[in-house]
TrEMBL record:
Domain of life (superkingdom): Bacteria
Listed InterPro entries: NAD(P)-bd_dom_sf (IPR036291), P5C_Rdtase_cat_N (IPR028939), STEAP_metalloreductase (IPR051267)
Ranges of residues in domain Pyrroline-5-carboxylate reductase catalytic N-terminal: 31-75
Family matches, as SUPFAM superfamilies: NAD(P)-binding Rossmann-fold domains
Organism from which the protein derives: Microlunatus aurantiacus
Keywords: Oxidoreductase
Name the record gives this protein: NADPH-dependent F420 reductase
Keyword Oxidoreductase among record annotations: yes
């Protein structure tokens, strides 16, 4: 059994907990009101808005060493909702990996909406697929196994360099939903 710690108690944190719990993981949540939490999971999911990540790393960085750290953020400019705030040749996941050199950082769940994770479907019954990027093959396999055991699909999206493209897809999907071009139960689906 895998222990998972999820930072964030919002819609995404709750939906991811549901999937991973269904897949057999023991899930512990850490919220912003938890001041002295201990990271017990071998897998740690950062299910928070991207501006909160640096605070988590500052407070828990030592506890994240040797862990699989899953970045689900989409680093949007929340003031304009019109751009990403990371350099064009980088990603939030790459920034996290640089801050946590002894962790195995993955990018996943950022191209999914909470409703599609919870239901297992996107739009008109397309299976929900979680795209997973990272440089550690064993870490990607651990997360993918949990996702599949939780009833969803998982696709290896390549190295952590692909996080930039995943963040662009997440950005496009979010802006389409906010602009009411797609619903929060819709989004991009992977058809095999």
């Amino acid at each position: 059994m895998t222990d998972v710690t999820i930072f964030g108690k919002g819609n995404m944190g709750t939906a991811i907990a549901g999937v991973l719990g269904k897949g057999g993981a023991t899930v512990t949540h850490v919220g912003s009101d938890d001041t002295d939490a201990t990271v017990t999971g071998d897998v740690v999911v950062l299910a928070v808005p991207h501006p909160a990540v640096d605070q988590i790393i500052a407070g828990y960085g030592d506890q994240l060493a040797g862990k699989i750290v899953v970045d689900i953020t989409n680093p949007l400019d929340f003031a304009t909702f019109d751009s990403l705030v990371v350099p064009a040749d980088s990603s939030k996941a790459a920034e996290i990996a640089a801050q946590l050199p002894s962790a195995s950082v993955l990018k996943a769940f950022n191209t999914n909406f909470a409703a599609t994770l919870a239901s297992g479907t996107v739009g008109d019954n397309q299976p929900t697929t979680v795209l997973v990027a990272g440089d550690d093959a064993a870490a990607k396999q651990t997360l993918s196994d949990l996702v599949v055991a939780g009833g969803l699909r998982a696709v290896d999206a390549g190295s952590l360099k692909r996080a930039r493209e995943l963040e662009a897809i997440g950005f496009l999907q979010l802006t389409a939903a906010v602009g009411e071009q797609i619903g929060w139960t819709g989004g991009f689906a992977v058809v095999r």
